[in-house]
Amino acid sequence: MVDSAIIGGGVIGLAIGWRLALRGQSVVVIERAKTGSGASHAAAGMLAAGVEVEPTETNLWQLNRASQQLWPEFAAELESASGMIINYRREGTLALALTPDDLRRLTQSYDFQLSHGVELNWLSASQCREMEPAVSSRIRGGVFSPHDHQVDNRLLVAALRRAFLAAGGRLVEDCDARLVQSHQRISGVALAEGEVITAAQTILAAGAWSAQVVGLPDSIRLPIRPLKGQMLAVETEGAPLIERVIWSPTVYLVPRQGGRILVGATVEEAGFDPRLSFGGIFGLMEGAWRVLPALEEAKISEFWTGFRPSSPDDAPLIGEIYPGLILASGHHRNGILLTPITAKIVGDLIMEATAPPPSFLPSRFD
């Protein structure tokens, strides 16, 4: 018997497992494919609590900001525990307007975000180009958010995997798991290979696949669906074209080491269809070129799709949904950002019986 069995080996499941193992728990993480091969691999790694906040997301903004504040210490601890660099970068994020309509919408967002305590700086078009000289001469203005950082999500997965194992956790990959119920309680998981793992607590952190896990009690209906995103990456030569994350009305650009730039992302209600579309990729390329004309000379190195685990209000579902079963899913576009605080909330729930924030309890959809 183990203390905690976790279904899902993305950043959320691995971080919960790592933190629980550090607190003395025996933990096993079961992943249907390879660790971090889902949304954690497809993400861009932006930690953008500030520039993304919208009028309908006041509660989510508070959670995002709290997790954003945990990130510097979380990154340092993870790098120390794993012996790996995860490229946590603090250059900030620049949001740009390219047309008068863009500028009007950016002004409205800026006023709203300031009213909620987001630290932002309004920049003229010339100031934007001083900060990022390669951006288009047609931009109308921008907003700089100094605390919206980024991390390399693929390195993050690898570091969490190593830290979890180093802390004594057990990892099972390429294996489906079925929830096991006994006496009106989830008592653990049964692996496809036949092993049954009895657990005092089971955590469901399977991202967009959470609602499809076999063995969910008939009374449980998880309002989690996949929201498809297409992305691409380009390689540039010489000095980096951009130093920080750039947002425009249609795309975002994320610089990585070695001249790599990520371009994302579409938002599509397409189920689990993994295929790339002409329109989706063309829209990304055109949007990126309008912001950064020098990309015309860049070489495309990768295309991919991912599936965001989304809920009806685009906010996570964290808390017990059945005796012995805790849900930690539905993080939508904020899975990487919310990794530290989700691991803390679930850990405190298990170790100290501390209730999760009411705004994110799964029961809000009952």
Can you give a write-up of this model?
With 366 residues, the chain is α/β, with parallel strands linked by helices. It folds into two domains: 2-82 and 153-224 and 312-365, FAD/NAD(P)-binding domain (3-Layer(bba) Sandwich), CATH 3.50.50.60; 93-149 and 225-310, D-Amino Acid Oxidase, subunit A, domain 2 (D-Amino Acid Oxidase, Chain A, domain 2). The chain is 29% helix and 26% strand. The chain is built from eight helices and 18 strands. The chain has helices at 11-22, 39-42, 58-82, 100-115, 125-131, 153-166, 278-291, 339-352, and strands at 2-7, 27-30, 46-47, 93-97, 121-123, 141-145, 149-150, 170-172, 177-181, 186-191, 196-204, 225-235, 245-247, 252-255, 260-264, 299-310, 317-322, 325-329. Strands 1, 2, 8, 9, 10, 11, 17 and 18 form an eight-stranded mixed β-sheet that branches. A hairpin with a 4-residue loop joins strand 10 (186-191) and strand 11. Helix 1 (11-22) packs parallel to helix 6 (153-166) and helix 3 (58-82) crosses helix 8 (339-352). 51% of the residues are buried. The model has no long low-confidence stretch (mean pLDDT 97).
Largest sheet: 8 strands, mixed
Distance between the termini: 32 Å
Q: What is the percent of helical residues?
A: 25-40%
CATH class of the largest domain: Alpha Beta
- The low-pLDDT segments are none
Nutshell version of this structure?
Helix content is 29%, strand content 26%. It has helices at residues 11-22, 39-42, 58-82, 100-115, 125-131, 153-166, 278-291, 339-352, and strands at residues 2-7, 27-30, 46-47, 93-97, 121-123, 141-145, 149-150, 170-172, 177-181, 186-191, 196-204, 225-235, 245-247, 252-255, 260-264, 299-310, 317-322, 325-329. The strands form 3 sheets. Strands 1, 2, 8, 9, 10, 11, 17 and 18 form an 8-stranded mixed beta sheet that branches. Strands 5-6-4-13-14-15-12-16 form an 8-stranded mixed beta sheet.
